[in-house]
Amino acid sequence: MDPALCQIIERIRAAAADATMLRIRGGDTKDFYGEPPQGAPLATSELTGITSYEPSELVVTARAGTPLAELETALADKGQCLAFEPPRFGAGGTVGGMVAAGLSGPSRASVGSVRDYVLGATLVNGRGEVLTFGGQVMKNVAGYDVSRVLAGSLGVLGLIAEVSLKVLPVAPAEATLEFACSQADALRLLNEWGGRPLPLNASVWRERDGEGVLSLRLRGAVAAVEAACTHLGGERQSGDRTAAGWQSLRDQQHPWFAARGARDLWRLSVPQTSPVLEVDSTPLIEWHGAQRWYLAPPDRRPQLRAAARAAGGHATLFMPSDIHGQRVLGRFDSLSPAVERIHRALMREFDPQSVFHRGRLYPAD
């Protein structure tokens, strides 16, 4: 067994014996997400490397501490990519952190989320046991697909030691169109276009200089993209400029996010068909209407949660106004009693001694 993995197993077993809490630490680029981490750091920095890559099979396997940039470079060299565009939030992001956070970028509504691309995983649970789930092909799971449960688990079930991911070829053609329109008109257009055979890949609506602007990214075969551009109209944007703009959205470096100041950053997940929400703030809207970002002072928290529930969705306090100040609990919406029972049963099964910080998702038992 790999020496680095052996050391991690020993640390976890010692923590279980001593009733010590551990916090899994990758690149520290997503510590702001979820409830504040607690416990002694358990680093994945020695668990690095791409252990298997078969471009012809569209699958790659990498260890948890592998820098995300290294993985994406290796894929790009073969004309492939992680289609869900995982946000990086910094140069130190890792493959394990990408899966544990479960966050996806601008293309998520069209291509799927992180968990849709997880084929298999190796996990070290709270007993220090090495467990393997799934494999390296899509149709290899009978029963409960635990490997995909790890996506978005924030490390509460154990340390992800290795993960196999489905990858896709880079699209042969891409174009971005811009439309001047209100928020209501943008949502109407996106719903209308969603019902047509168009190569939609990503969208974003925001206010720019006081005017509403909808950007639509098309990806696919050359003929399909060109035909869509002709059919939809709008103003076609230059490649270099738009590529940088989509990257800034992916990593939340866009000017809209930079204007946060002393306000909370909220992420509301609602049905794509939801109309304009009753919120005293102008959002940035992605995922064809399904993901809506809001900047609001702390006293608007009840209003935002109520608006998300009324639309049939949920709200996440993605980044509080002062992440280094007063502890803010309740980043995620509460779960239904039935779903919460399943969550807590899974945590007890994988980590009976509470070695890993369960409070990353919500207060521990």
How many strands appear in the DSSP assignment?
Answer: 17
**Element string (H = helix, E = strand):** HEEEEHEHHEEHEEEHEEHEHHEEEHEH
Low-confidence stretches: none
Strand content bin: 25-35%
General description of the model:
- The protein is an alpha+beta fold and 365 residues long.
- It has three domains: 3-170 and 341-360, Uridine Diphospho-n-acetylenolpyruvylglucosamine Reductase, domain 3, CATH 3.30.465.10; 171-259, Alpha-Beta Plaits (2-Layer Sandwich), CATH 3.30.70; 260-327, Alpha-Beta Plaits, CATH 3.30.70.
- It has helices spanning 3-18, 68-77, 95-101, 108-111, 146-149, 183-194, 222-232, 239-250, 255-258, 301-310, 337-350; strands spanning 22-25, 40-43, 50-54, 59-63, 80-81, 118-124, 130-134, 159-166, 168-169, 173-180, 200-208, 211-220, 235-236, 264-269, 284-286, 291-296, 314-319.
- The chain has an eight-stranded antiparallel beta sheet. The protein has a five-stranded antiparallel beta sheet with strand order 3-4-8-6-7. A two-stranded parallel ribbon has the order 1-2.
- A hairpin with a 5-residue loop joins β6 (118-124) and β7 (130-134).
- The longest helix has 16 residues, at 3-18.
- The model has no long low-confidence stretch (mean pLDDT 92).
